[in-house]
Amino acid sequence: MENILEVNDLHVSFKTHRGEVKAVRGVNLTLKKGEALAIVGESGSGKSVTTKAIMGLLPKPAGRVKSGEVLFNERDLTKLSDKQMQKLRGSEISMIFQDPMTSLNPTMTIGKQIMEGIRRHQNLSKADAKKRAIELLELVGIPNPEERVKQYPHQFSGGMRQRVVIAIALACNPKVLIADEPTTALDVTIQAQILDLMKDLQKKTNTSIVLITHDLGVVANMAQRVAVMYGGKVIETGTVDEIFYEPKHPYTWGLLSSMPRVDSKNSELLAIPGTPPDLSNPPKGCPFAARCPHAMKVCTEFMPDYSDVSDTHKTACWLQDERSPKVEPPETIQVGGDR
Amino acid sequence: MANTVEQEKLIEVKNLKKHFKVGGKATLKAVDDVSFHIYKGETFGLVGESGCGKSTTGRTLIRLYDATDGEVLFDGENVHGKKSSKELKALNRKMQMIFQDPYASLNPRMTVEDIIAEGIDIHNLASNKQERRQKVIELLETVGLNSEHATRYAHEFSGGQRQRIGIARALAVDPDFIIADEPISALDVSIQAQVVNLMQKLQKERGLTYLFIAHDLSMVKHISDRVGVMYLGKMAEVAGSDELYDNPLHPYTQALLSAIPVPDPNYERSRERIILEGDVPSPVNPPSGCRFRTRCPLATEVCANVVPRWTEAEKDHWVACHIYDDEYKHDFK
What we know:
The complex is a heterodimer of chains A (339) and B (333).
Chain A: E1 3-16, E2 19-32, E3 36-40, H1 47-55, E4 63-72, E5 75-76, H2 82-88, E6 93-96, H3 110-121, H4 126-139, H5 145-148, H6 158-170, E7 176-180, H7 188-205, E8 208-213, H8 216-222, E9 225-230, E10 233-239, H9 240-245, H10 250-257, H11 297-301, E11 307-308, E12 314-315
Chain B: E1 9-21, E2 27-39, E3 43-47, H1 54-61, E4 69-74, E5 77-78, H2 85-94, E6 95-98, H3 112-122, H4 129-142, H5 159-171, E7 177-181, H6 189-206, E8 209-214, H7 217-223, E9 226-231, E10 234-240, H8 241-246, H9 251-259, H10 265-270, H11 301-305, E11 311-314, E12 317-319
Parallel strand pairs in B: 3-8, 3-9, 6-7, 7-8
Antiparallel strand pairs in B: 1-2, 1-4, 4-5, 9-10, 10-12, 11-12
Helix pairs in contact in B: 3-4, 3-5, 4-5, 5-6
GO molecular function (chain B): ATP binding; ATP hydrolysis activity
Keywords (chain B): ATP-binding, Nucleotide-binding, Transport
Family (chain B): Belongs to the ABC transporter superfamily.
């Protein structure tokens, strides 16, 4: 499968009153056509900043891409002008935000908000754009679309608003859809509806999805591949099965073990001690070393290189080095996927 | 844990109602005729989606809201009865609360020592400054912080640490009962586990009783001995936590459990979901009869006409659904 989006050695920094915060420190990602890639990590891991850099939505002038490239259709997005990016955003790459309450304009009808993107990027008449808006509302499962296009966001529930946001994102048949915590603000039963809708739409439109989330359940449900981020770096990447059933990085182990499962009867959760590193003064070595139960001397001094576990599975951990002691993952990891 | 402790009721909630007036004549029935009890030393989990009344129930239990009707008994004493300020103070000391947002629930202009010692001061639990400080340091150490944190301000701490301060504050007056309203939902996954483990450790050491309110069903299952499921101001089902998850009776509980994404790709690929249609109706104008009937895949005519009775369908497993009511169960296939 060909790569539709490639992020190579991306570095993003923010200027703050405390000095430079290195939020993203050398991230590599690839997104293949038609697949859903999940980026998981905790707050401050750099997952949102990475996608904002892809979209050219970093807050200016505080945040900037220091080095690296974002290749989309053989063009480096970090080199494009604001005007060129505007043409791309919404038509080729579009985004779904976390909070449907704030990502819609309360003073505009839903119809107008959907038509805005269509009219801007596609040469459609007003009447045709309206027709398309109604089609889109129908596509995302909103009943009475003819009536609903005339209504304002406050007349919609949270789940319905998120459907509208998805309709806007899909309005121009984008090739890449970036969904930043698309279901975090929703209740579980509504979350199930939206995840179903997104999977269904992905099948119908063959859009590639980058899904940002901290919920590993959502990852297991939606994604084909996963990148785990920590301290501004991707520390492990692989297919969902590799990440859930053959994880190699102690942080991934910790993440998987600290979530309780509905169908398990364990008495204590395996918590990861400590807190994530301060990226205004990032650690010299592996960012997880300070919290890692298997940390060695080398971990605090040098950042490990990526080692290949398989063709699709990579991790950056000194435990993969042949000179390191052999460490088994905790029992909470279901090696091989057996239950 | 439920089997080892004596089944003595610490909290008894009887037909509790909390209605709010909203603009004009409309009333929002946030909690409408809810009854349950909490045994001494157990953790009772309360789950439901936003707007189901779980937080209002918690706040009414501790008299942050005055109940519209019904009563709450704490160790046999009516929480909402007429009380002198002295009696109220004595009661407040036994019940404490941990809040959801660790950023909003700590006063940014107070030092950690003053935040934690506020209850100690109000209830005169320390005779001098030294004793007060000693108590604060002990509490900080109990929750995994240390003495040097006492002189700092809330903004100097991370979310997880702030929630630890909130827990220390609740523990300062040596309560019997703690209401934790979504104590971990603002925290990252790895930090959530730390806080939950701490709460369980403290429960063991101090024999605390918890009401744990959350929307994260897997965490509620993990920490609770018994769980109550609420929907639109009503209790839908109450059972032991393993029993509830292994054998959910109410169609709403069944849908809720099937909606949780499980971090296991193989399982996710093969599972069948019950996807509920539509949204939760407005609590200002709830559906007649059973409130879940507008989204219930099994609803029949009787559900629109009759409010379901609170029935013990199996031992210690209570449910409000006509399917389990001898009088109506023949209406369902």
